[in-house]
Structures are given as structure tokens and as C-alpha cells.
Amino acid sequence: MPNEKSPAKLALLHHIKTLCDANREIMLVSLCTTDGFPISCFSVSELSNQADKFAAMSSTLSSLSDSSANQMKQGQCDITIVEATSGNILFVKTDYIGKPCVLTLVAHNKMALAEARYKTKKLIGEISAITE
User: Fold this and answer.
1) Which residues contact 92 (CB under 8 A, 6 or more apart)?
2) pLDDT of residue 126
3) Which secondary structure element, helix H or strand E, spans residue 78, and what is its range?
4) Thinking of the domain 7-128, which architecture would CATH place it in?
5) Where are the alpha helices (DSSP H) in the chain?
6) In sequence order, which residues have a C-beta less than 8 Å from that of residue 66 and are 6 or more positions away?
7) pLDDT tier at 18 (50, 70, 90 boundaries)?
8) In whole angstroms, how large is the CA radius of gyration of the chain?
9) Would you state the torsion angle of the CA atoms of residues 108, 45, 96, 9, taken in this order, to the nearest 10 degrees?
10) Residues 6 or more apart from 71 whose CB is under 8 A from it?
């Protein structure tokens, strides 16, 4: 993966920060490899120290969702949504510089699920367009 000052990493951080700055309901955006290594994590202060835990959890849930979808003959799982009492968590498969990854977005319930899903899909389009 690119280092912290590479153009690819700076582009990734720019897209994530732009989304979070424009949507205060978003508490966390995290990108990790499919095997659970953190690439980038942008979050509110109470969540900022847990990037490693989020990466492990995100890759595991994405993998379990994919396995479940395959077992039930539904093809590949592209997005997993967890609806919680305080908000929604979206786990979405994407590519970053040609490598498969999992994007996690956590949003307060003030942001409608449809809006969170739309903004997440837009972000994965931006992330998958980043090249090294």
C-alpha cells in the first residue's frame, strides 16, 4: 500500500475528508484490506484510536456476508448494512489502487439509510478511480 505522502494516499484522504466535512452525521469512514489491515481511518474523536479493531471487524463481516450470499446462491455480496439503534453501519467492497478492500461508513440515524448508501456508493466510485 502507498505511504502516507503518496499521491494515492493523499487523494484517498481528500475524498474521505470532503465527505465527512460535508456530512456531520458521519462518525467514521474506514478503508481496510480484505484481510483486515487498516489503510485509512477518519473518525470522530471517541472512535479515532480503534482503526485496527475496525479493520479486523470490517473485513470479517464483509467476508461472512460474502460467504452467506454465496451459500444462499445469491452471488457475491457487495454491501452489508447493520441498522443499530443510534445509526447505520455500511460495509462495502471496493478497490483501491487495484486491490480489493472494504470501506466502512458509520452514520448517526439523523442521516437516512438511503442517503448514507448513496454517499457511500459515490465514495467507492471515487476511491476505485484512484491510481498509484
Assistant:
1) 78, 79, 80, 102, 103, 104, 105, 120, 121, 124
2) 97
3) none
4) 2-Layer Sandwich (3.30)
5) 7-22, 51-71, 113-128
6) 76, 77, 93
7) very high
8) 14
9) 140
10) none
